Amino acid sequence: MKLSLLVKRIAFLVVVIGIWYLIYAMNIFEDIIFPSPTTVASALYEGFASGDLFSALGASFRHLFSGLFLAILFGTLLGVLLGKSREADETAGMYLVALQSIPSIVWVPLAIMIFGFSEAAVVFVVVLGGTFVMALNVRSAIRSVSPQLLRAAKTMGVGGVSQFFRVEIPASVPYFMSGLRLAWAFSWRALMAGELLSNGPGLGYSLRYAQDYARMDQVIGIIIIIGVIGAVVDQVVFSKLEKNVMKRWGVL
Amino acid sequence: MFLAFDQVAKRFGEGPENRFEVFSGIDIHIEENQFVSILGPSGCGKSTLLSMVAGLEEISSGTIRLEGEDINRPGPDRGMVFQQPSLFPWLTVRENVMFPLKKRMSKKDAQARADHFLKMVHLSKFRSNYTYELSGGMQQRVAIARALAMDPKVLLMDEPFGALDEQTRHILHKELLSIWEDTKKTILFVTHSIQEAIKLSDRVIVMGTRPGQIIADFHVDAPRPRERDDSYVISLEKQVMELLEKEINKVLKEELDDEAISTS
Fold it and tell me: For residue A160, which residues of chain B lie inside 8 Å, CB to CB?
């Protein structure tokens, strides 16, 4: 990143926090609904220092990774099936789109009724949040493999199963990466929805706990953490990975 | 006969109304080590014919035999180079050339063989590069090396230089001829460029359209390298040009008539 860009971005943040502080200093709102930036910062510091936020983050990532892992697994299997079999896609494809359009928070009551107020319920919501978008992307990935590459492989005696593993799978990697990125984003949102209504532990649960005790400083602090993690993982992990893959695969 | 087409036809669709015949009654006999071009206007089915030899396209009737064996599916005895290089972007240049060799020989032998053919197309320096780092002409040379690495009996080329600029095409013509002289492969080369066909081949087979059929078969008896201003080359070009013009006019006239009918 260019230095001037970094400076601009930091300056922007400073201005936003400045305005925030200014409004706070004018005493228009009560402290309890409008804490100062310093109160939020110290709430964050306390949370991390006491280890509460670390254990909440640890629990959240545990839910996320087990849910995301299963979502990628199921989504990939489902996507390959729909991508390879026209029959399966014609029969079930449109239901997949319907399922994908359901907001993940809708699954929470269902999850709680099946699994109770447990971590399994949260993981269940995360799995549903990521599976369908993964499946849709893997389906497109398999379908968009260039027929020209398949023809070329055939002339070299590579067909059938070995064609699937040596051509179709590697050729699908760019779309697969987009699928991963979306599955992560959807799962992250689903995780927060699930945890908000759970009995903990987790970042979403900590957020609701803070709300229950009317700790606006903690509420804002946790929202900031959620936003930062979402942005960092997307930018540092997935965007970079996707860009590199796209370049190597000649898609860019 | 080395490669023999007997009464080969291609039809699409079923029933008398929907049936569309691309070509029929194709008889071509090609000797080993010959460089044969198939020339024709677009729509005559020349690429379809080539795909049949590759085993990618079903033969509706008739037979194609390579050294007496019926062709009905792809096989390593026929290597194909397409208009698009069709390389695998996730593999390096060398891995692309090794692609057809996997399971047929040890990795070490495959590498040695890939390097040998990459040297032949003057790309040794680029063997560790990925394909997006290469120009179109270089990519097509990798595709040629990959086809040769299978050691096919016939090299099939479907307008391999059609997407390249004039300069690059010229260089690749020279390279292809020197490869052909070194390896003595039988080459079946599809093109719509009269100059290209005459410059490269021992034999130019001209196809007509509607219905697709062979309308002429020229033997090019001029020493290589052939220059464009050679009087023999010029007169041959003219003969082929006249033949093709008739074909193209026929197509145009039909299309205009169709339009007149559909608008009246």
Answer: none
- Whether the predicted interface score ipTM is above 0.90: no
Say whether pLDDT at A1 is over 70: no
Test the A interface: residue of B95, B96, B104, B132 with most A CBs within 10 Å: B132
pLDDT in tens, B18-54: 788 889 899 999 999 999 999 988 888 999 999 999 9
Residue B212: closest CA among B84, B62, B3, B56: B62
Q: What are residue B189's DSSP bridge partners?
A: B37, B157
pLDDT of residue B247: 83
State the average pLDDT over residues A139-167: 93
Mean pLDDT of A212-224: 94
pLDDT (tens digit, 9 = 90+) per residue, B127-151? 999 999 999 999 999 999 999 999 9
Q: Looking at CA atoms only, how far is residue A103 from chain B in angstroms?
A: 36
Whether chain A has a CB inside 8 Å of the CB on B55: the answer is: yes
From A146, A155, A170, residue closest to B78, measured CB to CB: A155
CB-nearest partner of A148 from B84, B90, B99:
B84
The reply to whether B76 touches chain A by the CB within 8 Å rule is yes
State whether A173 and B82 contact (CB < 8 Å).
no
Question: Any idea which residue has 């034999």 for tokens?
Answer: B203
Are the Cβ atoms of B100 and A151 closer than 8 angstroms?
Answer: no
Q: In this complex, do A170 and B130 lie within 8 Å of one another by their Cβ atoms?
A: no
Strand locations in chain B (E) = 3-12, 20-30, 35-39, 61-66, 69-70, 78-81, 154-158, 186-191, 203-208, 213-219
Whole-angstrom Cα distance, residue B203 to residue B183?
18
Coil vs helix vs strand at A112: helix
